[in-house]
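Q: Okay, next protein. This is QsdR family transcriptional regulator from Nocardia rhizosphaerae. I've checked the sequence twice, so it should be correct. Can you predict the 3D structure?
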Amino acid sequence: MTEQTPLGKRLDDLAARPDAITAFKAARSGFLAGRRLEMKELADELGVNRATLFRWVGGRDELLAEVIWSVAEPTLRRAIAANPGHGAHRIAAVLGDFAQAVNTSDAFRQFLRREPERALRLLTTQAGSVQRRFVVLIADLLTAEIAAGTLDPPLPVPEAALLLARISETFIYADVISGEEPDAAKVVQASLVLLGERPDR
């Protein structure tokens, strides 16, 4: 067994103490496993009281939003990397791939079925931070295509980005919103129409 110095022991002690990052990682792991996030259970798991947990991460909705975005953002970035085309067709393909990934994610579908009202509030309104960040990434995509001369959208970037986000949300969360089946293909078609392209081209 390796001898440990006093400083090494203190560093190990610090590493073993739960904090906001530990709480976030535990919450994310539970979300991906399809479990409902319960603050009391999470506090018990971390060995702290609820007041400490709330001080670290804010409320349950704030923590859920961060967990969801930590999964959604890399999913969207993978969709961006997988579609190196140009213009409206590239943006539509990115959003379609993202929608397909979300629609086939067990963790997201379980969350939607378990807490539909909270899910819609966190994911599709300004009450949560997820939609705002989603819109920013779409705006970045639009701006890059415009700068490259491959896109001339019929709307200013902020409005187009928000509408593209809402189109994606409509068909990703269709089962919760309207009782219809989620449909990634419709995300592609509607996005192309919004950006002034024919879907069948």
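A: Here is a summary of the prediction. The radius of gyration is 20 Å. Residues 6-57 form one domain.
Q: Noted. On to the next one.
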